[in-house]
Amino acid sequence: MTDEPRRLFILDTNVLMHDPMALFNFEEHDIFLPMTVLEELDAGKKGMSEVSRNVRETNRLIDQIISNASFEEIKNGLSLENIHPNSGMESLHLGKLFFETEPMVAQLPAHLPSHKADNHILQTGLALKEQYPQRNVTLVTKDINMRIKSSAVGLHSEDYYNDRVLEDADLLYTGWEILPEDFFETHGKNMKSWQEGESTFYELEVDHDCDWYPNQALISANDSGFSALVREIRDGKAILEYMHDFNSDNSAVWGINARNTEQNIAMNYLMDPEIDFVSILGVAGTGKTLLTLAAALEQTLDENLYNEIIMTRATIPVGEDIGFLPGTEEEKMTPWMGALMDNLEVLTESDGYTDWEKESTQQLLSKRIKIKSMNFMRGRTFQKKFIILDEAQNLTPKQMKTLVTRAGEGTKVVCLGNISQIDSPYLTETTTGLTYIVDRFKCWKHSAHITLQQGERSRLAEFASDNL
After folding, report:
1. Other C-beta atoms lying within 10 Å of the C-beta of residue 280
2. CA angle 7, 11, 13 (to 5 degrees)
3. Residue 82 has pLDDT above 60, yes or no
4. Neighbours of 159 (CB within 10 A)
5. In this structure, are residues 237 and 205 in contact, taking their beta carbons and an 8 Å threshold?
6. Structure confidence by residue, pLDDT tens digits, 418-456
7. Where's the PIN domain (predicted)?
8. Would you list the DSSP string of 213-231?
9. Is 163 helix (H, G, I), strand (E, B) or coil?
């Protein structure tokens, strides 16, 4: 190993389990893999979970890097440039990959047993720090406790930042914008309007640096009640469509009305057949699931736009086997789908109907609503389906891609989630697949996003949320 000013990154096992391509994401700097990491990768390669698949992909990449290399070459570091998937497409300047080819010994505090895998990685890092004092040696890990222990023993550590979509979750696209009070005074002079069927459109001039996105909702700050969706922006002009009002009783969707402006925006997205993908973020009680189910039932049973509703969610642990519960796939998933079932009961309750009529309705719905496990969706294609992905904040970007690409012709996908309630141990608000897909889809004209903030559950829930 040469004495170069380039940084030396020690990768923890969880980084490679999360992202096999992490080997190529440190630019010109060098990477070091302790033997303990290789052993943990070997132990985690079996199984059908997303983590196991990532481990196997990592092992294949390392095998490709190390193949045909002599021990001396491995000891001196192997170049990552020749093996990078895009090495033939662009000029890359990557560092080298080093392995622990000889014991790395350093003094650990007496209260840290050296036989533990994490402590052995810390010991290796301290030994490298002593061996190469002129280099910046950094341990990269997604384990918070590992970073704390690393700091406690004097080894610099960092989180794995490359999978971050944004620097801060507060910068995430919300899907709507409040127009200034003088909006019509500044834009009304050259504004054009026309009717197409039941829709009203407006054309107005905008600056070339206008930061509106397709299907973004624009809400007037004054009492005019104007609300519109951005349908198109080109050549310095924007085309807006007046938003349909789902607050009125005659515009109820499966008996459900929007209770506030945010819910009305969401319902416009859910009921628009030209929008193939909808993502809805919001805390508990904002109506994400209820609105989505109402729109799904309306368009599946009444309008026949879709022939089936598919409900699924990430089971915890994410992507693992759903267990040895008795029954079919749907019966096994039932414990995870409590929120969906609760909202379905609200939507199917009707006064004045007999028990026989209610039971008939339930049987009809059971034939058109299917509960699926995410574990069995790989390789499938769903045609003319209304797919609801609940608790999507617990999905990685790769899992999100796997699920959304299942959509066939005529299928609508709706992702629901709350990025402040992430249960997966290695995901954060800025790295979850839900944040990833919101950011990547915001410029596509057939997608829409809305962040719900106003709760509509009950006065008890609202008081508890504000005061507990």
Report:
1. 30
2. 180
3. yes
4. 17
5. yes
6. 998 888 777 889 889 999 999 999 999 999 999 998 877
7. 7-148
8. -TT-EEEESSTT--EEEEE
9. coil
Encoded tokens for 427: 């995901």
Query: pTM surpassing 0.85?
Result: no
CA 196 from chain centre, in angstroms, equals 36
Sign of the Cα torsion 55, 58, 64, 70 reads negative
Q: What is the DSSP string of 317-384?
A: STTS---S-SS-HHHHHGGGGHHHHHHHHHHH--TT--HHHHHHHHHHHHHHEEE--GGG-TT--BSS
pLDDT of amino acid 320: 47
What does each C-alpha distance from 48 to 13, 40, 55, 375, 440 come to in angstroms?
18, 17, 11, 8, 27
> Are 309 and 298 a contacting pair, CB within 8 Å?
no
- Residue 219: phi and psi, rounded to 5, are -115, 130
pLDDT at position 359, please? Answer: 65
Q: Cα–Cα distances in Å, from 52 out to 11, 18, 138, 327?
A: 18, 10, 26, 26
Radius of gyration of the chain (CA): 27
* Residue 312, both tokens: 């699924």
Domains of the chain: 8-158 (3.40.50.1010), 169-242 (2.40.30), 271-467 (3.40.50.300)
Interior angle at CA 83, CA 79 and CA 86, nearest 5: 120
Residue pair 461/467 in contact (Cβ under 8 Å)? The answer is: no
List, for residues 127-183, the tens digit of each pLDDT value: 999 999 999 999 999 998 999 999 999 999 999 988 777 777 788 999 999 988 877
Helix (H, G, I), strand (E, B) or coil at 75: helix
Top mean-pLDDT range of 50-64, 110-124, 230-244, 267-281: 267-281
Angle CA 289–291–296, to nearest 5: 90
Nearest to 287 by CA among 309, 266, 313: 266
Task: Answer for the pair 132, 117: CB distance below 8 angstroms, yes or no.
Answer: no
Looking at this protein, which amino acid is placed at residue 145? N
pLDDT tens digits, 305-353: 999 999 888 765 434 455 555 555 555 555 555 566 677 777 767 555 5
Contacts of 192 (CB under 8 A, 6+ apart): 202, 203, 204
